[in-house]
Amino acid sequence: MRLVLASNNAKKLVELRTLFAPLGIELLAQGALGIGEAEEPHGTFVENALAKARHAAAASGNAAIADDSGLCVDALGGAPGVLSARYATLFGGPRDDAENNRALLRQLEGQSERRARFVSVLVALRSADDPEPLIAMGRWDGEVTAELRGEGGFGYDPLMYIPGFGRTVAQLGAEEKNRHSHRAQAARQMLALMREVWQLG
């Protein structure tokens, strides 16, 4: 089965290919089919993931899966949230991981409450008009550090400290991250749903 990933994020594609390997499906990025990015106008991860999956399914004629994910910080009322990938643009900066991290640290200056969670929502559709989307969600709790730590991962990984590991996500190995991350949790739920509902694997 071919499944189109509604993203052109190469690192996300690698992560999800590893996580979905047990199903034996062909997962390819929408860009490989000449499909552009979908609009993400909604205020929740679920709505944006559904919009992206519908866009990719309609444009490709294939089943599609979308991930919408980000960092939700309690002290900021859940921000950056769905704007995680472009958080710095809210303050006049470019859309860039390093700038997003700097913007987050500036917003948290002097703040002692730094609890946060990574959230990932996966939505899969058999077709653009599938009335029964499969929806899975993963959450990974931690806290935002005061400085960047680690060289791995992407996005906010160098700032997200996971107490159970005593390290930031950027200090974890890829295998550890793929076992425990918000995206890994959502992917495990999605694997179970695809086996049960779509009869895959």
UniProtKB/TrEMBL annotation:
The active site is at D68 (proton acceptor). Keywords: Hydrolase, Magnesium, Metal-binding, Nucleotide metabolism, Nucleotide-binding. Mg(2+) binds at E39, D68. It holds the Pfam family Ham1p_like. Substrate binds at S7, N8, N9, A10, K11, K12, S69, F154, G155, Y156, D157, K177, H182, R183. Transmembrane segments: none annotated. The keyword Transmembrane helix does not apply. It comes from Caldimonas mangrovi. Binds 1 Mg(2+) ion per subunit. It is an enzyme of class 3 (hydrolase). Belongs to the HAM1 NTPase family. Its cofactor is Mg(2+). The keyword Transcription does not apply. Pyrophosphatase that catalyzes the hydrolysis of nucleoside triphosphates to their monophosphate derivatives, with a high preference for the non-canonical purine nucleotides XTP (xanthosine triphosphate), dITP (deoxyinosine triphosphate) and ITP. Seems to function as a house-cleaning enzyme that removes non-canonical purine nucleotides from the nucleotide pool, thus preventing their incorporation into DNA/RNA and avoiding chromosomal lesions. PANTHER family: INOSINE TRIPHOSPHATE PYROPHOSPHATASE (PTHR11067:SF9), INOSINE TRIPHOSPHATE PYROPHOSPHATASE/HAM1 PROTEIN (PTHR11067). InterPro entries: dITP/XTP_pyrophosphatase, ITPase-like_fam, RdgB/HAM1. Homodimer. It catalyses: dITP + H2O = dIMP + diphosphate + H(+); ITP + H2O = IMP + diphosphate + H(+); XTP + H2O = XMP + diphosphate + H(+). The gene is rdgB. This is dITP/XTP pyrophosphatase. Its EC number is 3.6.1.66.
